[in-house]
UniProtKB/TrEMBL annotation:
Name of protein: Thioesterase domain-containing protein
Organism: Aeromicrobium flavum
Keywords annotated in UniProt: Hydrolase
Keyword Cell division recorded: no
Alphabetized InterPro entries for the sequence: ACOT13 (IPR039298), HotDog_dom_sf (IPR029069), PAAI_dom (IPR003736), Thioestr_dom (IPR006683)
Domain Thioesterase as annotated: residue spans: 61-139
Xref: Gene3D superfamilies: Hotdog Thioesterase
Length: 149
């Protein structure tokens, strides 16, 4: 697909197109580093998953908080992206994360879901949640993103 065609896609269309491509046919993204899988891309809401692996452990042997922060930043930002028009971008201005419980690094799947709260002309806000396989809340957060027109 040409660059011109990509810039004519809405944010949701672009994300669906980009994540449908094999990893070797698209530019690398932070999700590749964390092994994120896209579970759903809907208008205003997205869900991704990661595995709690030993390679992401903190010195205490549990999952480093940066893994959940990255998952939350990704799902909240992409939820905003789904609401943007063609050629409009965004960037995180502020990220707030609350950690609820520790996560063992035993390969369990964590699911992050981000949902839009508000999209304006110059900023947007979203909220997100990370849950473990039992549906227990691991972390939650909010973000404010700048809209680049």
């Amino acid at each position: 697909m040409t660059h011109a065609a990509l810039t004519e896609m809405s944010g949701l269309e672009f994300l669906r197109y980009a994540f449908a491509l094999p990893a070797d046919q698209r530019p690398p993204v932070i999700g590749d580093l964390f092994g994120m899988d896209v579970l759903s891309l809907e208008d205003g809401t997205v869900s991704f998953s990661i595995q709690s692996l030993p390679s992401a452990a903190n010195p205490l042997g549990t999952l480093h908080g940066g893994a959940c922060a990255t998952l939350l930043d990704s799902v909240m930002g992409c939820s905003i992206h789904t609401k943007l028009g063609p050629g409009v971008g965004y960037g995180t201005l502020e990220l707030k994360v609350n950690y609820i419980r520790t996560v063992p690094v035993d390969g369990r799947t964590l699911i992050g879901t981000g949902s839009v709260i508000h999209v304006g002309r110059s900023t947007a806000t979203a909220e997100g949640r990370v849950v473990d396989p039992d549906g227990k809340l691991v972390a939650h957060g909010t973000t404010t993103c700048m809209i680049y027109s």
